[in-house]
Amino acid sequence: MIVWNCIINREGKLISTPSSATDCTAARAVALGFFDGVHLGHQKIFQTMLDVAEARSLRTAVQTFENPPSSKVQNYLITTYSERCGLVAHMGIDDLFAIPFNEQIKSMSPETFMEVCLKDWMHARAVIVGRDYRFGKGREGDVQTLQVWGARNGIEVISVDPVNFEGRRISSSWIRELIVDGEVEQAEHLLGHPVAFAGVVEKGQQLGRTLGFPTANIRIPEQKVIPKYGVYASAYCLDGKILPSITNIGLRPTVNQEDQIPLAETKILDGYFQLYGTKGSVALLKYIRPEQAFPNVEALKDQMNIDQEAVRNYHKNRQLPVRFDEYV
User: Fold this and answer.
1) I want to staple 61 with a disulfide (CB 3.0 to 4.6 A). Which of 95, 117, 204, 291 is the partner?
2) CA distances to 60, 183, 279 from 163, in Å
């Protein structure tokens, strides 16, 4: 997949495209949106775009934003920009057009977006969007705006109905709520893939090793939604292999009085691995219990044994997810 990065000057003119692109003028079917999470509703839009592109011999493309609105940067995203790129690439899409969400974009009129970005930059011949898609300054543009413009320019515009689950429309905001509430199983149903994150394994206090529970400690990327604090049945991807694991997310109140940044501590259930300094990928599969403070380390250790047994029983009855390290 080719990733195209966009720079637009104050006059609304495109001034930068990637030099590595093999064909910057190829006609494309383009899916428009932010696509946080790349959930089942987004995937329906992508599949519609793929079908249209195949029928009309067009390249396939997805447009997204490199960053969320500045007011929503902290603990907002289901998927970071790089994770969205990975999920889009996983669907076999040719191009990804990345636009920075900055003041120039916020103030861009719908007409300028359609002319400069869609027609001149992406060379769209078909545009696929969700039914409620809005764009441009003040969210003034909508599907009807696109369809009127498309009719003038010979560009097909297709509106895709949302995907519902148990009578409710699947949305990124709903999935964020589920993650915050620890409902990662439900979130996985709506996403079509597990709630996952990745990072470099840190060297911590090594208390888990002392207690017989060595863990891989990973900071959740600062832009991502923080899952509900507590213990989860999880899966850890190591060298492309998925292993059953247990993860605690939170502030570790029994042993930590200073660090107020949440940490994810994951123990692979079987085997010993030297993971410090390596990239770790973790998928959260089921919420087991909330985080709590214990009166002493021995009480913590007893609970950890109980938690580990509960997670082992969970893994006995569930097949591990397919590889998720390719998109986190």
Assistant:
1) 95
2) 22, 19, 34
| Residue 78 and residue 36 in contact, taking contact as beta carbons nearer than 8 Å | yes
Q: What share of the chain is helix, strand, coil (3-state, %, to 5)?
A: 30, 30, 40
pLDDT digits (tens, 9 = 90+) for 297-313: 888 889 999 999 999 99
CA distance 231 to 82: 26
Q: Among 3.40.1370.10, 2.40.30.30, 2.40.50.140, 2.40.420.20, name the CATH number for the domain at 185-316.
A: 2.40.30.30
Instruction: Show the tokens assigned to 25.
Output: 């003028």
* pLDDT tens readout for residues 91-139: 999 999 988 888 888 889 999 999 989 998 899 999 999 999 999 999 9
Distance from C-alpha of 175 to C-alpha of 197, rounded to nearest angstrom = 15
Residue 13: how many other CB atoms lie within 10 Å? 11
CB 33 within 8 A of CB 140: no
Domain ranges of the chain: 2-165, 185-316
Going 296 to 298 to 299 to 304, the CA torsion angle's sign is positive
Q: What angle do CA 284, 326, 267 make, to 5 degrees?
A: 35
Q: What is the pLDDT of residues 29-62, one digit of tens each?
A: 999 999 999 999 999 999 999 999 999 999 999 9
DSSP letter at 315? H
The C-alpha angle with vertex 216 and arms to 210 and 217, in degrees rounded to 5, equals: 95
DSSP 44: H
Phi, psi of 281 (to 5 degrees): -125, 125
The predicted model scores a pTM of 0.89
Q: Does domain 2-165 have CATH number 3.40.50.720?
A: no
User: Measuring CA to CA, which residue among 208, 186, 224 is closest to residue 84?
Assistant: 224
